[in-house]
Amino acid sequence: MAQPGEGGAHGALSGLRVLNLGGSLSAAWCARTLAEYGAEATIVEPPGGAALRSLGPHGPDGGGIPAAYAVANQRSLVLDLADEADRATLRRLASDSDVVLESHAP
Asked: Are 20 and 31 in contact (CB under 8 A)?
């Protein structure tokens, strides 16, 4: 578990590491909420970004406003899961995390 002061804001969940693999608005919102309480949240996205980033309405920069709001307070990491090195990185991140969020079909 992360030590207090190693990322994340000060709060009730300070030191908690959250890995967001969901790719959905609901998973992003959950991770954002945990980050607001001090967790260190990281969203993992494929090259080109998560599909949720295309949800409208869109801002002046062309990015989806709902996604911009939902992924706030999260670090973003791009991993290509077709690449073995990136899969190894994902396994390491998951094992180092206290919470792993996902919203994929079983």
From this structure: yes
Cα angle 105, 13, 43 (rounded to 5 degrees) comes to 40
SS3 77: strand
The pTM of the full predicted model, rounded to 2 decimals, is 0.82
Taking a C-beta distance cutoff of 8 angstroms, is the pair 42, 8 a contact? Answer: no
How many other CB atoms are there within 10 angstroms of residue 71's CB atom? Answer: 25
Sign of CA dihedral 86, 94, 54, 38: negative
pLDDT tens string 13-62: 999 999 999 888 899 999 999 999 999 999 999 998 888 877 889 889 88
The domain segmentation of the chain, as residue ranges, is 17-101
Q: Which fold has domain 17-101?
A: Rossmann fold (3.40.50)
Encoding tokens for residue 33? 């909420």
